[in-house]
Design a protein that fits this description.
The complex is a heterodimer of chains A (403) and B (364). Chain A has ten helices and three strands. By secondary structure, chain A is mainly alpha-helical. In chain A, strands 1-2-3 form a three-stranded antiparallel beta sheet. In chain A, helix 7 runs antiparallel to helix 8 and helix 8 runs antiparallel to helix 10. In chain B, 69% of the residues lie in helices and 8% in strands. Chain B is built from nine helices and three strands. In chain B, helix 6 packs across helix 8 and helix 7 runs antiparallel to helix 8. Classes of the chains: A mainly alpha (403), B mainly alpha (364). Chains A and B meet through helix 7 and helix 10 of A and helix 7, helix 8 and helix 9 of B. Chain B: Heterodimer; heterodimerizes with SNX4.
Chain lengths: 403, 364
């Protein structure tokens, strides 16, 4: 819809709140889910003030619906991923419960990120269904389903088949697929180990907290050492509790990595679509070639390949010239059709490759930028953690030396 | 564990100890320097055991020469300790490392175990040398100077097994009777020791736990760095590759720093804390013995009030015992003060060092 071209650039989208809701579902059972408030504000050009234009509540499943729709209608685009459905790569302190407030908060941020990425994509932001997602609360689901997009989706089986059988996929896509496999495996490994490291670090800090307790009990019986012990104990407590904030910040880093983990899947989806189209093309070409051959055989009367028809004619007698003429005519029509189809498929295929590759280049730049930023902010986090550590231990050292 | 030759707590040669003393302004100059090193394993048909080399340098007149080198095994240390306890029942004798650690040890002759024990034995002898009374003990001198056969013949002298058993029986009997009136200050001491023992045990456990957690953290970190390198291999854009490699190398540095922190912990803090755990056990023993002596006195006094006969004899005995109690109490008090001062200093410097280590760790 072209009328939405520019307005989205001036919109601010935010997912500002999350709320627990309980309803009775179709089977008359109580169901609890979390709903998220999406607010859109238009930014007035003149004075930079923003005015609330729309606000509505959506739940996670509706986001999923939107994304599935986008996947079907824009197969050449690397569609931004949603935050994870269930908490994975947890370390022991975080609960894997979907209702846990920390998890809900991080999901809220992830959903906002998703909407912002879609809104800033030059092609996706123009989609009408996306616009309605942000503005039309009721009936949106029906509207989406009416587009019949689910029927247009390629079956998983078909796609798998194509992946194995395709003969000549574009090399760039094959390489891209390898890259996305590698990316996925390296990031998931990294996240797993990071979770374990976080666990251990938590342990180290927390055990120091025990010092605090024992020191203060001990200081009760000491005369000269008492004060020093007491205040040192206090610092141990500070040290032990500092880990909570540190690890929460690290979760943010983990989330950034997770987004690219899921992006790898989106990349693979584009590759799969290419393979499917290519396979289709190859099948159509093959079909056409065999029909042409058949036609030729009928016309010249030579049977070069074994065929059932050939056998039956040998057994039951030749067919009449009229019959043969009729068949040739049918075949010629089919061949014509086939050639048309092949031409259009070729065109489609090339269009697809061109558009997809353009988006992939865009994605690559985005990815490099984002990852660099994420790594740098991770390093900054570590530095700040160390600075805090230095401070606490310097204080503790002072206390110890006063004992 | 590498032998830390520059650890402030354990100088490894008498020469370096002399130097150290010159820097610290000690009012009484040390004239007895002892080191324990070179554990060696000896195999006989009956058993396998470890001996440690003990080098003594001294300027004291009563020693025949100024340098001695002998080899001793753990049993010899046990003997020495026993003799010291006998001679000075209410003095605070330094603790010996345990016979063998039950948990986590596969065999007695594990390298770490031997090293830990060697350090503790070194500390043991040096503490005796520093003690104003114990350092002049005859058995101590024999221990430091006698050759192997001399030592075994010396050991055979002294009260035999039976009489020692008799002493033990009497001791148990009197402790059963209980102490009726413990003087106020010893009551305080007793309470202090109880609480202290509790707390120091806890601290020992906590410190061990921290060490364990840090080790596990280190193990995980070792895996973490290489993943970034692996990732950098899949990426094309140079800046991203460099950033990833940079993160990996920082993680490696963190690993090294963690290692250093751990070794600092095990060199300085853990042995000291552990020694004081043993000390607290010792102290309980000392308190008991003091109580025993007092109990003996009390019972004799009681006997006096009931048995008018043999008054003279009893009075004499009581007199002796009172003296004994007096001595014991005084010895204990004096020693107590010393010990506390030492403990404070030790714990203080141990924790300060730990704090230093942590600071260095974070700076890296």
């Amino acid at each position: 819809m072209t009328e939405n071209n520019f307005w989205l650039k001036k919109m601010e989208i935010s997912v500002s709140e999350a709320e627990k809701r309980t309803v009775r579902n179709a089977m008359n059972m109580q169901e609890t889910y979390t709903a998220y408030l999406i607010e859109t504000r238009s930014v007035e050009h003149t004075d930079g003030q923003s005015v609330l234009t729309d606000s509505l509540w959506r739940r996670y499943s509706e986001f999923e619906l939107l994304r599935n729709y986008l996947l079907v209608y824009y197969p050449h685009i690397v569609v931004p991923p949603l935050p994870e459905k269930r908490a994975e790569f947890v370390w022991h302190k975080l609960s894997a419960d979907n209702m846990d407030p920390d998890f809900v908060e991080r999901r809220r941020i992830g959903l906002e990120n998703f909407l912002l990425r879609v809104a800033s994509h030059p092609i996706l932001c123009r989609d009408k269904i996306f616009y309605l997602f942000l503005t039309q609360e009721g009936n949106w689901k029906e509207t989406v389903n009416e587009t019949g997009f689910q029927l247009k989706a390629d079956s998983r089986l078909k796609a798998l088949n194509a992946t194995f059988r395709v003969k000549n996929p574009d090399k760039r896509f094959t390489d891209l697929k390898h890259y996305s496999d590698e990316l996925q495996s390296v990031i998931s490994h990294l996240l797993r180990v990071r979770a374990r490291v976080a666990d251990r670090l938590y342990g180290v800090y927390k055990v120091h907290g025990n010092y605090g307790r024992v020191f203060s009990e001990w200081s009760a019986i000491e005369k000269e050492m008492g004060d020093g012990l007491q205040s040192a104990g206090h610092h141990m407590d500070v040290y032990a509790s500092s880990i909570d904030d540190i690890l929460e910040d690290e979760e943010h880093y983990a989330d950034q990595l997770k987004e690219y983990l899921f992006y790898a899947e989106a990349l693979r989806a584009v590759c799969r679509k290419h393979e499917l189209m290519q396979y289709d093309l190859e099948m159509a070409a093959q079909d056409l070639a065999s029909k042409k051959q058949q036609c030729e055989e009928l016309a010249t009367g030579t049977v070069r390949t074994f065929s059932l028809k050939g056998m039956t004619t040998k057994l039951f007698g030749q067919e009449t010239p009229e019959q043969r003429e009729a068949r040739i005519k049918v075949l010629e029509e089919q061949i014509n059709e086939g050639e048309q189809q092949l031409k259009s498929k070729n065109l489609e295929g090339r269009e697809f490759v061109k558009n997809a590759w353009a988006d992939i280049e865009r994605f690559k730049e985005q990815k490099n930028r984002d990852l660099k930023e994420a790594l740098i902010s991770y390093a900054v986090m570590q530095i700040s953690m160390c600075k805090k550590g230095i401070q606490v231990w310097t204080n503790a050292k002072e206390c110890f030396s006063k004992m | 564990m590498d032998m830390n030759s520059f650890s402030p707590m354990m100088p490894t040669s008498p020469l370096s100890m002399i130097n150290q003393v010159k820097f610290e302004d000690e009012p009484d100059l040390k004239d007895l320097f002892i080191t324990v090193d070179e554990p060696e394993s000896h195999v006989t048909t009956i058993e396998t055991f470890i001996t440690y080399r003990i080098i003594t340098k001294t300027s004291r007149g009563e020693f025949d020469s100024s340098e001695f080198e002998v080899r001793r095994r753990y049993q010899d240390f046990l003997w020495l300790k026993g003799k010291l306890e006998e001679a000075h029942p209410t003095l605070i004798i330094p603790p010996l490392p345990e016979k063998f650690i039950v948990k986590g040890m596969v065999e007695r002759f594990n390298d770490d175990f031997i090293e830990t024990r060697r350090k503790a034995l070194h500390t043991f002898l040096n503490r005796i040398a520093d003690h104003p009374t114990l350092t002049f003990n005859e058995d101590f001198k024999v221990f430091l100077t006698a050759q192997a056969w001399e030592l075994s013949s010396h050991k055979k002298q002294g009260p035999g097994l039976l009489s020692r058993m008799g002493q033990t029986v009497r001791a148990v009997a009197s402790s059963m009777r209980g102490v009726k009136n413990r003087p106020e200050e010893f009551m305080e001491m007793h309470n202090f020791i109880e609480t202290f023992s509790q707390k120091i045990n806890l601290i020992d456990k906590i410190s061990q736990r921290i060490y364990k957690e840090e080790r596990e953290y280190f193990d995980e970190m070792k895996e973490y760095g290489p993943i970034y390198i692996l990732w950098s291999a899949s990426e094309e854009e140079l800046e991203l590759v460099d950033t990833l490699k940079g993160v990996a190398s920082c993680i490696d540095k963190c690993c090294k720093a963690t290692e250093k922190r751990m070794s600092g912990l095990s060199e300085a803090l853990l042995p000291v804390v552990h020694e004081y755990v043993l000390y607290s056990e010792m102290l309980m023993g000392v308190m008991k013995r003091r109580d025993q002596i007092q109990a003996e006195l009390d019972s004799k006094v009681e006997a006096l009030t009931y048995k008018k006969a043999d008054i003279d004899l009893l009075t004499e005995e009581i007199g002796k015992l009172e003296d004994k109690v007096e001595c014991a109490n005084n010895a204990l008090k004096a020693d107590w003060e010393r010990w506390k001062q030492n403990m404070q200093n030790d714990i203080k410097s141990a924790f300060t060092d730990m704090a230093e280590e942590n600071i260095h760790y974070y700076e890296q």
